[in-house]
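Lecture notes, unit on binding sites. The following record was shown on slide 14. It pairs a sequence with 4'-deoxy-4'-aminopyridoxal-5'-phosphate.
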Amino acid sequence: MSNRFRLREALSQFPPYVPGKPPVQAPGLTPFKLSSNENHLPPLPGVLDAVTDGGQIPANYPDPKSTKLVADLADHLGVEPAEVVPGAGASEVLSALTNITLEAGTSVVYPWPSFEMYPILAVARGAEKRAVPTLPDGRHDFQGLLSEIDQTTRLVLLCSPNNPTGPAITSEELDGFLAEVPADVIVALDEAYFEFATGAEAVDGLAAYRKHPNLVLVRTFSKAHGLAGLRVGYGVADETIATALRQVIAPFSVTAVAQAAAAESLGRVGEVLVRAKQVAADRDRFAADLRELGFDVPDSEGNYVWVALDPEEAVAFEGACAEVAVAIRRLTGGVRISIGPDEALDRVRTVAATFAAERRDRSAQA
Ligand code: PMP
């Protein structure tokens, strides 16, 4: 660390957050970005009007309490407004959760691979990070997570559906887990992608929340609602926790435009869910096609699929997709491909077919 300024030593330990790459241009091909789990469908009618209306007086600060959005969410979820905490994306709510729990001498337990911000936030707060490898099928290892919880643990992060591996947590798994976790340890359930889940057993965070006051739900308008660019998400938490979260979230962090668009989209949640199910159907077809070609693809309940590959294969697969102007996400252990338009997925299917044929040739020669 440079000694020019009095910066924190810990900064040198921050794992980097690597954002999804933009697509490489290729002559004659429309570029597609399948590297950030964005929603590829156009905005719902009404949402763009809300954006325009919400941005009418840019000189004024937004409503610091997001009053309408909070009231609408509380109504929609059947909770009290005091239990709803909006933030600039689920990212801000997650950051606030780590801010109200973690400090030097404490620990945070989470599955890995999972959302890249978890270890960054842990290190940022000076806490010990305890990453528990997911099972070979990409599911959370709940026994493993439990065995990492001790007196120092203030926070457990769960992700359902898990980004990047795909599976959702089941209600049975979550209930069993929460029955074993000390009641004063906060367990955050990151449900950034829950609207895309179609499996009958996928956990209903809200039902679990009603039974377990130490469970905090973290949700976002970025994915199924397609508002990632506006930065709005929310937490649902016991009032004591919610009050603490509000203490650390920056005032005015949810812009007037974001509040208006989120409220409008929530008002059209039926349409949002229909579209999420369309994405889920494309996902299931895409995953089945990749499996047919011999790839190891865990069940996904999000708007993406995970393809387990060894490091060399992952580099080659990402490169072959880039050559056809499709950006995908390479992470440790494989690649994650967001569900995009048919044209983009078809290009990845072609890459995968070529790849599978080459794999077969190699193993025939071996
Ligand atoms: N949680 C998970 C699992 C995610 O994948 C993401 C975004 N990729 C987020 C939270 C944060 O989303 P946002 O801040 O856009 O709401």
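Take-home: Residues 37, 89-91, 115, 159, 163, 190, 192, 220, 222, 228, 233 surround 4'-deoxy-4'-aminopyridoxal-5'-phosphate (CB under 6 Å).
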